[in-house]
Amino acid sequence: MKIRTLRLLAKEGTNNLYKNKLMSLASIMTVVAALFFLGIVLLIAVNITSNIEAMKRDLDITVFLKVDASDFEREEVIAYIEREKEAGVISQYRMETKEQAYENIKSELKNEALLKGLSAENLPESFYIKLTDPAYSDEVIVQLTKFTGVNTEYGIGYNKSGLERLEKILKVFNYIVMVILVILMVIAVFLISNTIRLTVYARRREIEIMKYVGALDSFIRWPFIVEGILIGFVGALASFFATSQAYTWLQNVLNSILSSMGLSTLRIIEFSPVALHIFAIYAIFGVMIGGVGSILSVRKHLNV
Amino acid sequence: MIRFVDTTKVYSNGVVGLKNVTVNIEKGEFVFVIGASGSGKSTFLKLIMHEEAPTEGEVYVNGYSIHNMPRSEIPYLRRSLGVVFQDFRLLPNKTAYENVAFAMQIVEASPREIRRQVPLALALVGLSKKAKAYPNQMSGGEQQRIALARALVNNPSVLIADEPTGNLDPKTSWEIINLLEEINQRGTTVVVATHEKDIVDTLKKRVIVLDRGEIIRDEQKGLYLNEN
Ligand SMILES: Nc1ncnc2c1ncn2[C@@H]1O[C@H](COP(=O)(O)OP(=O)(O)O)[C@@H](O)[C@H]1O
Ligand SMILES: [Mg+2]
Questions:
Q1: Do A5 and B83 touch (CB under 8 A)?
Q2: What b/e sequence results for A228-247 when a residue is b if at least 16 CB atoms lie within 10 Å of its CB, and e otherwise?
Q3: Which end of chain A is more exposed for a tag (fewer CB within 10 A), N or C?
Q4: Nearest residue of chain A to residue B111 (CA atoms)
């Protein structure tokens, strides 16, 4: 096909888009809605993932020594921690002495009666360790377990099972996102192909004439495909704009709610770092929905 | 040029449109296909342009064989033909000039060629003045002439017309028929389906007479009705 023909067909497609204003608008809105919903679902997934990462980074490993651990046993553990800190496995740590433990308990348990019989002496010393990467946690915990001064009775470490449950939920959520995505795409393709069907119908005389004069199938098809792709792309642009506005607004609202609830580790992420990705996804999906929708419709209703 | 060999067309609902038709139309001929309504005239023309495929037998047109023709070949067959219909079939949202130019754009002619050929085609049908008019601003006769210009602009070797004067008054009909004759004199094969006795009897061209899908008469310089 010659370049000028492609240009002609692109022009025809654009003109048709404009001529069928109302129908085009309806399909564009369909794309906007489908992509908007898709974007919101994706952004929720991104937020959950990023917050889980942040929570992991934030979690301490807590190690209690035995109440009767000797100085040597304590020094052994400190030496190990220092070594791992040198190696870049542990980012920081804090030791809690028996006295500090007592003070903490005292401030937590306001009830004097419960404190009776409790002294600093029968409280354990403990370490709060932050890792540079949560992936090291298993290894560090195994190492710590080997020290004789470490109390392994209640286990070492953080609330791993909770985190694992969260990650499982995230996985399931991702599957659900996939399913929703597929369903949305199917619906959008269906709606677009319906619009294109209407424009095919509106232009059936023109198409008939084109066939009599000897137009190739591709010549007849392309303006419709161009029309579909344009619908998809314009829809993607509009949807991107709507998404960025809605998200930014929601982000501000939710963040202020979170900080007022004191959940400062939880953050709704900014839009700008993911804007390009979202835009690319919208553009690709929009164009695909529009193109596939019109190809299906033209195949079915144009008999070309 | 056009050859039917024992061709039968049965429509999907079982109606027989054409039955065992064998006929030969040579290059440069002017042929009337006549017969009562429903006798198969349109079917005859539809087979030539492959709007319908034959059920049995073969049709050869400009070197193409119509039976089991691959889909991809149909456009090229059609480009070797010009077609006009009773109802003109112009695009209402394009001017006369654009309607004619459209036929050239479809076959990917260059803009230079289009600018040269379209005015010639409009001049041939005597409507240079109406180049900028839209179909609804023209009379039926004028619209049919534009349709003729469109059919001819790509220089087809065969022109097919299905009742081209069916919607026109007698005077205008004659203008169209005279144009068809002129086009034929320039070397184009012309096949016209009609049931207008006057026209057929005045022109005294070859007539192929159909009745219930069969050829019952095929005469050079024939009349509408049998003389004897
Ligand atoms: N698409 C079709 N489907 C079924 N029957 C048809 C179709 N087209 C034409 N026919 C039938 O075939 C016969 C011949 O029709 P046609 O060729 O249109 O005749 P004419 O043009 O001489 O009036 C008629 O009986 C008509 O009803
Ligand atoms: Mg007819």
A1: no
A2: bbbbbbbbbbbbbeebbeeb
A3: N
A4: A4
What ipTM was assigned to the predicted interfaces of this complex? 0.86
* B76 in contact with ligand 1, CB cutoff 6 A: no
Which of B33, B43, B87 for a ligand 1 pocket mutation test, highest count of atoms within 8 Å of Cβ?
A: B43
Q: Is residue A67 predicted with pLDDT exceeding 90?
A: no
pLDDT tens digits for range B148-164: 999 999 999 999 999 99
Q: Which helix (H) or strand (E) holds B16?
A: strand B16-25
With contact defined as beta carbons under 8 Å apart, do B159 and B2 qualify? no
CB-based contact A238:A282 (threshold 8 Å): no
Q: What whole-number distance in Å separates Cα of residue B220 and Cα of residue B203?
A: 11
For the Cβ of B208 lying below 6 angstroms from any atom of ligand 1, the answer is no
Nearest Cα residue to atom 11 of ligand 1: B17
As a whole number of angstroms, the distance between CA B56 and CA B35 comes to 22
| Three-state secondary-structure class, residue A168 | helix
Kindly list the structural domains of chain B, giving each domain's residue range(s) and its CATH number in brackets, ordered by start.
Answer: 1-80+161-228 (3.40.50.300), 87-155 (no CATH)
The yes-or-no verdict on residue A166 having pLDDT over 80 is: no
Answer whether A78's CB lies under 8 Å from A150's CB: no
Query: How would you classify the pairing of strands B81-85 and B158-162?
Result: parallel
